[in-house]
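re: that chain from earlier
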Amino acid sequence: MTNSPRIADLLQDAPAAGQTVQLTGGLRTVSDALVGPLATAALRTLHVDRCFMGVHGFSVQDGITTPNMLEVEVNRLFLERCDSRVVVADSSKWCLAGLYSSAPLHEIDTLVSDDGLDETAVEELRQHIENLKIEKVVES
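^ sequence. v structure.
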């Protein structure tokens, strides 16, 4: 289940065994997500095992954020309707705050980021998120 046409295309082009790709309807945002009444109506009736969510920004104070009022509603529904919440955010998003908060950090099960986060940030995040994965950036 995704609200991003680009992600749906990627998943459809490289299908996993037993995988079904479902695209929600709605308005397209700058981040290429679909939002609005059709997207939220579709999400209200679904159950998702694991949600992978990219974010505009994240911080201890604001949690995970977005600058888009319609997108925050879709983000909150995805987080409510899933068993496992995984946020993927590179270190440039740390302490960047969008206007709207989707969730506090303690509601996130796993955060995946890169090794650009300093030690202080990592320690702060570990106090709020049980599973923190810091990946080394490999330059190509």
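The longest strand covers residues 48-54.
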